[in-house]
Specification:
Strand content: 15-25%
Number of domains: 2
Structural class: alpha/beta
CATH superfamily of the largest domain: Periplasmic binding protein-like II
Number of helices: 12
CATH class of the largest domain: Alpha Beta
Distance between the termini: 38 Å
CATH topology of the largest domain: D-Maltodextrin-Binding Protein, domain 2
Length: about 290
Amino acid sequence: MPDARQRIRVGHSPDPDDAFMFHALACDKIATGRYRFEHELVDIETLNRRAFQGELELTALSLHAYAYLTDKYLLCSCGASMGDGYGPMVVTREPTTVDRLRDQPIAVPGTLTTAFLALSLCIGKDFRHVVVPFDRILDAVRDGSYQGQPVGSGLVIHEGQLTYARQRLHLVVDLGVWWLGRTGLPLPLGANGIRKDLGEPAIGDVNRLLRESIDFGLAHRPEALAYAARFGRDLDDARTDTFVGMYVNEWTRAFGARGREAVGELLRLGFEAGILPKRVSAEFVGE
């Protein structure tokens, strides 16, 4: 018989922290009632751009991209990826300084990522860049080019933050450290957006189920880590555990007042720096 439950299409990145977060929903570990979740694993920049068409009912979003999507999506009150004193990194083949980063094009994982916004705030907007799939950036920096385009440094997200040294690359700036020094706040990188047209009851239910999935993973960590490990590129079990701990934690269970303040500060500074075209106030489920 056809499944009469309401379909909720979910998009998230194919990386260990998102896999850990969605493990319970993806593997039927919690009861979902009248909802049927269908999962798509897609890189974050692709999800950011698909969100402009509102294709997915629930989707991972960069906070940078969310600034353009407030007409379509609310932010779930859970599911945050926060860099609490750490975050995306810029790496190079040879040691250099932040002031020299603008000398050559920077490989970036997408122009709607929060990493791109944070880097723009750090070194100034309109720097030269080459968009490179996030899992090819380290190779591009090592090789000095990507598809014939020169690359001087790379903006690294996901597990590359733990593996860049294997390719003998050098850290120039950790944007989570830079952001904490500037604002005293964690760097809000990603969130989960839920489509506004689902209506209030479904929005509340889906937000609750996402929270239950996160709580299940944290309560059954070895099981959820074993699932998440399938999505870790070049990560052993110890590094998978470390990486998941960086981005699935109490911030993920709930933004809280300080997390919401961090989102507001990111959006405010992005606008005041002329990077975001309009002033945006984040809207969360339950407000």
